[in-house]
Each structure stands twice: as C-alpha cells, then as structure tokens.
Amino acid sequence: MSEEEDIILSELPDDELVLQMHDDLYDGLKEEIEEGVHILLGRGWQPYEVLTTALVAGMTIVGKDFRDGILFVPEVLLAANAMKAGMFILKPLLAETGAPQVGKMVIGTVKGDIHDIGKNLVGMMMEGAGFEVIDMGINNPVEGYLEALETEKPDILGMSALLTTTMPYMKVVIDTLVEKGMRDDYIVLVGGAPLNEEFGKAIGADAYCRDAAVAVETAKEFMARKHNQGATT
Fold first, then answer.
1. End position of a domain, from candidates 66, 97, 128
2. What tens digit of pLDDT does each residue of 9-46 get?
3. What is the pLDDT of residue 63?
4. Does 3 fall in a domain?
5. How far apart, in whole angstroms, are the C-alpha atoms of residue 195 and residue 130?
6. Which residues contact 207 (CB under 8 A, 6 or more apart)?
7. With left for phi above 0 and alpha for psi between -120 and 50, is residue 28 left, alpha or beta?
8. What is the mean pLDDT of residues 179-183?
C-alpha cells in the first residue's frame, strides 16, 4: 500500500488538511474532497472559509497550471468535478449564511453551435473561483440571452463559439444589447477556438478569453473595477 493511501484526512490538523485538499483537487479526487469539506465543517469552519481556503485556492493552482500547459483539459475537468462535489455540499450552507458572491455570470454557446466542452470548463472554473454561474447550454438565440439577462440580472455575459460560421452571431447579440440600451449593464466576455483578440474588439465585447483560466482572471479584474467604480460614484 502506498503512503498516499495511508493518509487519514480526519487525523490531519487544519492547515495540513487544507494543503491535502489542494492536492486532492489537483488530482480530481471527488470523494476525498467531499470528506475534507465535511471534516472542516465539522470542526466549525464557516462554509465561505471552506470554499475560499480549501476549494477556490486549490482551483487557482489548477487554473495556473492549465494556463501554463502543465495540466490539460481532461485533468482540469476531473478537478472541476471534484470541486463541484465540494460545492454541492457548501451551496445550501452558503445560501443560509448569505456569503458574499464574487459575481454572477450567464454563459451559453451561440445559436447554430452545439460545442460545449470549452464553455463547460469556463463555467466550472468560474464556479471554482466563487462566481454564481447560470449555464444556458448550447445553440442560444439572441432572445434566449435577453431573457436570461432579464431574469438573472448577472454581472457578466459569456458567449462561446467553436465554428467560424457561428462566430458572427456574437455580434448579433451585442448589437441587440446596444439597440436596447442594455450593453453597458453587462461585462461581455467571448471565447472559442476560432476567435482572437481582434475579433473580440471588432464585435464590441469587453474581452476575448483564450481559455478558462484567462476567463476567470479577466472576470475577476472586471469585477474589481466594477466594485471600485461603485465605491467612487
């Protein structure tokens, strides 16, 4: 039996348990993450503290290594699934305690496009960073986006496309927001393999995000700016 299997999570002091959870998250070990969350809660940790110290901090390491090409999509998906399992336990508790949310995002693949791996990854990583994410799925017409924005009142709208033929639909959505005088109410982030920075600028998005790790960093930057503006006005 390897030394790894000998670790009994409940016997670790808090600081070591948190570091072990970072490792388990990195390795995509869902059951260990669930156990770790329960142990910390049982020791009197606040749900928000568990989320930020054990899960978000661990997912940040995953995000950095994904950005730097050390981890790849399958591993990140495993880590994100482990994170989701921990979040599943914490979500109702966070709602009760009214824990602060970093921000709220509506995300969906545009009309005519049924690709969703990249979008799903962004959604999971955003949740991992403490955002509330409403995933609209694939093949979304402009009406669908408008309805979601109206209902959910998010800070951020995320759109993805994997086909060169569906990319222009992002402009349709943004132009409609402009027409309705709603464009400035949202941070609009776009992504997908055929896109680039020039395209993002040309269609009037706030930013193009080349991958999920960049999407999280960009969203955090924009939210920080938004809060600062809110404080000064």
1. 97
2. 999 999 999 999 999 999 999 999 999 999 999 999 99
3. 85
4. no
5. 26
6. 187, 189, 190, 200, 218, 222
7. left
8. 97
For residue 226, give its domain range: 104-232
Q: Give the residue from 68, 97, 126 where a domain finishes.
A: 97
- How many whole angstroms separate alpha carbon 215 and alpha carbon 102? 14
- Burial pattern 44-73, b for ≥16 Cβ within 10 A else e, equals ebebbebbbbbbbebbbebbebbbeeebee
**Average pLDDT estimate for 110-119:** 92
Query: Taking the CB of residue 190, how many other CB atoms lie within 10 A of it?
Result: 26
Which tokens go with 46? 């606040």
Identity of residue 209 = C
Position 229 confidence tier, pLDDT thresholds 50, 70, 90: confident
Please give the single-letter amino acid code of residue 29: L
* SS3 (DSSP) at 140: strand
